[in-house]
TrEMBL record:
Family: Belongs to the NAD(P)-dependent epimerase/dehydratase family. UDP-glucuronic acid decarboxylase subfamily.
Enzyme Commission no: 4.1.1.35
Predominant localisation class: Golgi
Biochemical pathway: Nucleotide-sugar biosynthesis; UDP-alpha-D-xylose biosynthesis; UDP-alpha-D-xylose from UDP-alpha-D-glucuronate: step 1/1
Top-tier EC class: lyase
Ranges where the NAD(P)-binding domain occurs: 7-316
Domain of life where this protein originates: Bacteria
Protein's name according to its UniProt entry: UDP-glucuronate decarboxylase
GO process terms (BP): D-xylose metabolic process; UDP-D-xylose biosynthetic process
Transmembrane segments: none
Membrane topology annotation: Single-pass type II membrane protein
Keywords from the UniProt entry: Decarboxylase, Golgi apparatus, Lyase, Membrane, NAD, Signal-anchor, Transmembrane, Transmembrane helix
Cofactor(s) demanded: NAD(+)
Amino acid sequence: MPRGTILVTGGAGFIGSHLVDALLARGDRVVVLDNLSTGRIANLDQASTHPDLHFVQGSVLDELVVDELVHRCDTVVHLAAAVGVKLIVEQPLKSLTTNIRGSEIVIEAAHRYRRKILIASTSEVYGKNSRGPLSEDADRILGSPAVVRWAYSTAKAVDEILANAYHRERSLPSMVVRLFNVVGPRQSPAYGMVIPRLVRQAVREQPLTVYGDGSQTRCFAHVTDVVAALIGLLDCEAAIGETVNVGSPAEISILDLAWRIVKATQSTSDVRLVPYETAYGAGFEDMTRRVPDIGKLNRMIGWSPTRTLDDILRETVAEARAEEVARTQMLPA
Ligand code: UDP
């Protein structure tokens, strides 16, 4: 007996597809809206034969499709977005349109039909605030809007403000989740994310490209833990109207991460420091540190991560090795 019908925008993406699997497993009906720009239909392989999955290939910019799908569902999880620093730096206009206009269309439809909506935001909204751990009310510290990276942060902040304004002024049952670096199986290396990239480099015995001096730190959460947090928040009445960090508090420098990956893959690769401007173009600014305060999430739903970085690396390495075998088998002899 299905519990409810949940629309997942971006449901063929990395996080979305794991969420879809988990929702189907607990008995929900799921409708996925994805334009397959960065999402992949293969991410839904496991879910594709499930009778309670309905997949629609389309864009969140298509108001008619969004209207119809939101109408058919009782809850919306809005994950569709242009993500990944590389993609945003390379296609700023498209990214901004998707992230601002797309979210506005989805939020407006949720309001029209009074649907509960979870909006995925990002730790990028904190900008260069490198104090840690960052609680939800920490200041945003941003560079010039002319620097594309901060445009992404601003777009996501606009989404948050819009959701909050609809909640306060129009009683929309919305919640905002700020995701810190989420990793795990199905995350593509194509959009610049560090773990899938470095793991593939190590598996191919290529140098691992660490940007800057590698002293910048991040905290990596396993996608399965993150999905459990999203579902916990969807079921939590107290989360309505709130903004909540989701991420792991375990901090590691990117240089240490690179060597951990070399060790985990038993690779002969070396680590190569690459200047930021070579990687992302002139004027790029990185965050030196980004650590979530997850006290609020823990108090709300009793969540803390169950998987370590070693667990994450083990799975990512296994996936990369399997891909590598498939790739070499397809090469002409
Ligand atoms: N990074 C790196 N080498 C890569 C890709 C990324 O050193 O091949 C760095 C990047 O500059 C950043 C960190 O790894 O400091 C995390 O990057 P990612 O794009 O995964 O996430 P975000 O910057 O959004 O935290």
